[in-house]
Structure prediction request, 630 residues.
Amino acid sequence: MLPIPESIAAKLAHLPDTPGVYLWKGADGRVLYVGKAKRLRPRVRSYWAGDHETSPKTRMLMQHVTDLETIVVPTETQALTLEYNLIKEHRPRFNILLRDDKSYPYVKVTVQEPYPRVFVTRRLLDDGARYFGPYTDVGAMRSALNVVKRIFTVRSCTWNMPDDMPERACLDYYIKRCKGPCIGAQSIEDYEAMIDEVVAFLDGRTDEVVRRVTERMAAASDAMDYERAAEMRDAIAQLQKMEEPSVVLSVEGGDLDVVGYARDGDDACVAILRLRTGRLLGREYRFLEHIEDEPDADVLSAYLGSTYLAATERAEELLVPFDFEDRGLVEQALGNTHILIPQRGPRRELIDLAEQNARHLLEEFKLAGMEADERATDPVYELGRELGLQKIPRALVCFDNSTAQGKDNVGSVVWFENGRPRRSEYRTMRVKSVDEAHGPDDFASMREVVFRYFRRRLDEARPLPDLVVVDGGKGQLSAAAEALVSVGLEKMPLISLAKREEEIFVNGRAEPLRLSRRSPALRLLQQARDEAHRTAVGYNRKRRTMRTVTSELLRIPGVGPAKRRVLLIAFGSIQGVRDATPEQIAELPGWSVAAALKMLAALQASDPTAIHVAPAASAPVQSDTEPTVS
Prediction:
């Protein structure tokens, strides 16, 4: 196996498990190879899994590779199209096998000729012609091309006109598939105007062509040339079904630049997807560091006002994820580029795709050298965006309380890291400030649990979470806020999640936040809330069991607190103690066979209906009690 360069090894652990394109680069920064993948992570890692003895080309490629770049796209089909576009742009030396006759076809218009032709080709030449494509459905493309030729009567001959002219017109002239420019029946000006319409159509302005054909159909119908009108009708139907050149997403309009934005604390990434005539041609990005307390809108405005404004090539429309104060000034400085903020539809999907790329790049930037499971998931980013947090909530804690008719008041804390539970950080504790004689007080319990938890983490100098979640409504939120203030953490983001309507109450906001039931961010909060509830109820049940066992054993002389604790840990319940044999009890610290017989006799006397059955000797039952914060 070849050694993995450090610059690549840091990225391999953080590759997304999604479709995309990868670019292997050499020491001089040039692209050596472009490939596509249904799942980027296993595909890219496979290059380092063996010595490539069966593929000399791959072995030579990996000897020259020093860097890696990846671009995320929604589907494998779109990765295929992007791969081809990038190969065409960069012409990597190791992609030579993708340039054979199995490549995707183009429609070629020989605009450099006096009488241009329109035909299909698989070779791209720098000859001044216009190329449209690539097309993935060859059959549909050829069918549509025939329709175009019939509508525009483009010549199909190969004469080198006007230097080489035939003596008589071909059959196409007599069946009205060509207007006969070879015999002077059509002027060169008229022919050039027709070619302009062909180019406009292949550029994607289908509506304009359909309108013109519709006018011709109406004129033929008025002249009672119904056969010609029927041909136009059929042509319109085929035009509407014609496959456009492959696109990433179906977006109307001209060229687009799409901005994706991701932020984590004092670092941010802006990624720009460049779409031309509906095709994704590439991606650019820039990291922004040390932005401290600057709002996201100001960061985006600063980037657009400097880097994007200085770009040599800009699209007709610039799509941005959110509004910013200087949008009018920036748009005025950009000139012909209009700034749009799509909220739904295909353009919004493009924004989401750009943001996914920005998140992926930011993860690579911040987490190089860390473990793959430290990569934040998309729901974590969405949660931060929905709550308006400047720092991504990689670590969040959720609090819940549990009680049984005012007794055994307990609290629980669960820790989620990058959207996944981290059970080693779960904590449970007994609530001490609530008097059981006066009944339950959920607000006071929440205040105590939050206070004790954070006071201890501060005393032990342990990491703090990025977001605090409590189970409940405004009351529980206020109680938790008071606890955070008392330990000096009043600026820590705090929310509560109410069960009935799944409303999110944010500390400092009057109105609750309602997310879609399908929102991944809401599902993440629900998972944390349910996990905290499960942990609290489980610990409450264990406390009740302990109280029951203790009350029974308190009536037996000679069984003190230490011995009761040993019995509880070993057998779990009073019935477990009754079912144990004297030999099993005697194996415990502080116990003997005689003491065990005496205690079992006292238990049987306290409950004459209990039948003592000594089971076969077995290992003591271990307790799974959660760590407890005192």
